[in-house]
Every structure is written in C-alpha cells, then in structure tokens.
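Wait, mind explaining this?

_____
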Amino acid sequence: MQVTMPLIGAAQREYWRIYHSPTDVVRADSLRQEFCIVSGGVKIHMDVYEQPNNDAPTIIFNHGGGGYSRLFIPLALALYDCGYTVILPDQRGQGLSEGDRGDFLMSQFVQNIVDAACWARQRYSGKLFMAGGSLGGALTYKAAAAGAPVSALVCHNLYDFGNPADTLAVSRFAAFAGLPKLPELFATLVHLLASVLPNLRIPYKLLGKFSKMVDERNTDFYRHYQHDPYPIQWVTLRYMDSTFRTPPAIALENNPLPVLVINQTRDKMVSPAVTKHNFERLGGHKEYVEIDYGHWAMGMSFEKEWSAIVDTFFKQF
C-alpha cells in the first residue's frame, strides 16, 4: 500500500516557517516560485529562487535524509544574494513531492536529481552547478556520475553507499563499521530480509542520530524538528537494502568533475573521518574545506559563510 503525503491542516502545511526569521520568510515568499517535473512516474516539487537574468549561474541544492526544500530557505537566500538562481528539489516521497513516504530507492533519488538538472539546463543558459548536504552530498556526486549536466559539485559530506562500511558509519551502528567483515555481513542480512519482507517499515529516526543533526549552539532546531510533519517517519527494508547496494556509476577514484568537499569539525551525527576518507579517494580536481559546525547548521552566519566558500569555488569554472 502506497503511503503518500498525509492530509494535514493549514497550520501544519506552514510548519516550516517556524525554523526561520520573519524577515527571511517574507523575503522567501516574495522570491520563491514553485515548479514540478515528472521523474520516475511521480511529481517532483522544486522551489526556485530565480535571478532576473536567464544567464545567471544556477545551483541545485539537494537535501539529505529526513530533509526537504524549505528547511534551507536561509541558504537559498544567501546563494541568491551571491547571484545564483537557486533550485531546491524535494526527492520522491519527501517534502512536497509525490510518492510513497518511505518506500523508495537510492537510485530513484539519483534519477530525481538528474531530471531536475536536465530541467534546469533547458530553462537556464548560465553555468549549472550542484551541491548537497549529508545524504544529499552523496546523491549530488551520484547524480553527476549518472549524467546530470553540471560543471562542478560541492559535497557537504561525501559518503559511498556502495560500501557497506559507509552505510553503517552514517547510522546508529557506526561502532561496527570498522570491524572486519561485519559491514558485509550486515549488508547480506538486510538483503536477505528485504528479499522476504521488502515492504516492512522501520522507524526512520531509529536509524540515525537525528538529535545530533546540529551542534549544541542550535538549541531549538531538534525541538522543532521532532514535531515537523514533513520529514519521513518510516522507511522500508527495500530502501535500507538500497543504501548498501547503490555505488556511484563512476567510482570516486575516477571522478571527472571539479569537486569541493566540505567537512564539519563539530559533527556528532557522523564522524568527519568518513568524509575525509572519501575525499582522499577522489580523483580529478578536488578541494577540501573544514568548517566549525555540526552535521548541519542554521544561523550563526553559517549560511553566509557556506555560500561564500561555495561561490569562491564555483567562480573558477
């Protein structure tokens, strides 16, 4: 049985506003346009902050697991102020997009992002870039490897979901990721269970350390996030299996595109060592920056600092 976006009241539909300052909300409402594309048979929602000139550089930002487009309004505004048209897609089954809210595959997320990039390439004439955070950082690389027509990437976190050790390392089971043969054994067990009970649903927040998503300075974020109606609540065993078995179409070592990897020194959700290791594996033109924040951040000048780092990188290409 497909589980689509639940029917929610008007106040809940606007819940995302609670995260942001009134000034940012008013400005976002004045700039934001909404578009939909069809990808993999479902409607994918995109918030777009469009520059008046069609040849402005464009950046697609991809949210992570449990995220959605409107969590990133301050970031969108900061990038817009740097001169970018900003596109924020919601992956299938998440945010304002259609699709079963819990039963999806990593490969479907990748296709959603490729299709969003192709849409952007047809609509805008300027250079096209892509970025993403957390799971979205990995998906950004995967989508580029799968053919998204972009010139350069920013991966805020870089994970390899063809490597069972990485899948464990981003979860509550990170302590087992470094044990010999155990990640492969865990992946085999999930695969066997998924072959028998593919639709069995697991509480999503049990899989990751979501209370550690931001560092101790963002005191209100998780309190609000716990009651947010938009993040996914459950995922199927079929989805979990895909997180062990979806390597990028081009291995990190053979990367053909310029990539900036951003890593967070205060990250308590996933060890920064995972991203650092995958950066070291990357071939091609690559750059690395560490920032003094948690897994993600809101406020504290984070968005301006982040967008300035990204803008400096993209201006090379």
Remarks:
- The domain at 10-314 is CATH 3.40.50.1820 (Rossmann fold).
